[in-house]
Specification:
globular
């Protein structure tokens, strides 16, 4: 029987972080400045790194059900690799979130609340998808090949869309399922208009964010299976990456154009993890190499983005 202590600590940890963020960092629902967003981003990254120490302690003291017989160092490396993969794949999600906010004309002061609620939903939905994915890998032989092929298809489709300069379409289908008001109504989600209950544009944006996160999860969750199938490492790396996404959005929201070439870094990472999944039965790629490749890809994307922008300026 699996020890529930590590899971209780993980859940308690991110609940405390979320409560601290919502009730202290954003108690008055003020507009998030770039300086504040940088502080919050560093705060969540630091906590993700601190949790790596806790993971080392779990595995060194056999507190957790170590299904893959990992050493403490291997567990930490896999956790960090998975965290960086999830965080890097979330960069593309940031562009979509920006478009959603623009489409629904969400005021800046309400964006944090929507992202906060979106994070809560993402944590629950990803737990379900991760569980389903792990069951499929264990029950169906060659499932890693299927996941790898799907990621490869996703990467090629993404780069094709970029080459054709296509923006993600505004989700119009949702509007037909609900009665919506185009107004924000002081940050409310449901209001009464002429005696009828209607959903506000904030609810429409929240629903769209949740649906798009599910679509992104179909890419990111198979990607981390290329690193590990340990449930605790998969979910913990996902949780900390998702929690940091909100503050990262406000940090990058005014600089998305400056980091346009990060999309190609994400493309390279998707190609790498897809090939790693496909060849898993024949080739064993060391985790240190995976971590180095992912980190190098991101650094190259950042460097090219900044130098290109300077060249334009």
């Amino acid at each position: 029987m699996e020890n529930i202590i590590p899971w209780a600590i993980l859940i308690g940890y991110f609940l405390v972080l979320l409560a601290f963020d919502f009730f202290i960092l954003h108690k008055k629902n003020k507009t998030t400045t770039v300086k504040r967003a940088i502080f919050e981003t560093l705060f969540f990254i630091t906590n993700a790194l601190l949790f790596a120490v806790i993971i080392y302690w779990f595995y060194s003291n056999s507190i957790i059900n170590n299904i893959n017989n990992l050493t403490p160092s291997q567990a930490v490396i896999k956790y960090l690799t998975g965290y960086i993969i999830e965080l890097s794949l979330s960069v593309d999600n940031l562009f979509v979130i920006a478009i959603i906010f623009a489409s629904f004309k969400i005021p800046y002061q309400h964006q944090h609340k929507l992202l906060f609620l979106g994070i809560l939903g993402a944590i629950v939905f990803r737990a379900i998808l991760i569980s389903i994915g792990l069951i499929l890998i264990k029950k169906i032989h060659g499932m890693n090949f299927i996941f790898g092929a799907f990621l490869l298809f996703t990467a090629l489709k993404m780069i094709k869309k970029e080459a054709e300069h296509k923006e993600p379409e505004k989700p119009k289908g949702i509007m037909r399922l609900f009665r919506f008001s185009r107004e924000h109504h002081d940050g409310k989600f449901i209001v009464s208009v002429k005696g009828k209950m209607v959903f506000t544009s904030l609810f429409g944006a929240l629903l769209t964010i949740e649906l798009t996160d599910l679509l992104f999860a179909l890419d990111s969750i198979p990607a981390i299976f290329a690193v590990t199938t340990d449930p605790f490492l998969v979910y913990s790396s996902n949780v900390f990456a998702i929690m940091g996404l909100r503050s990262l959005y406000f940090f990058l929201s005014n600089m998305l154009e400056r980091f346009a070439y990060l999309k190609y870094s994400v493309f390279a990472i998707l190609i790498f993890v897809s090939l790693k999944l496909i060849t898993a039965n024949w080739v064993e790629i060391p985790e240190w190499f995976s971590l180095m490749f992912i980190g190098t890809s991101l650094l190259i994307g950042i460097y090219i983005s900044t130098t290109k922008v300077k060249g334009v300026d």
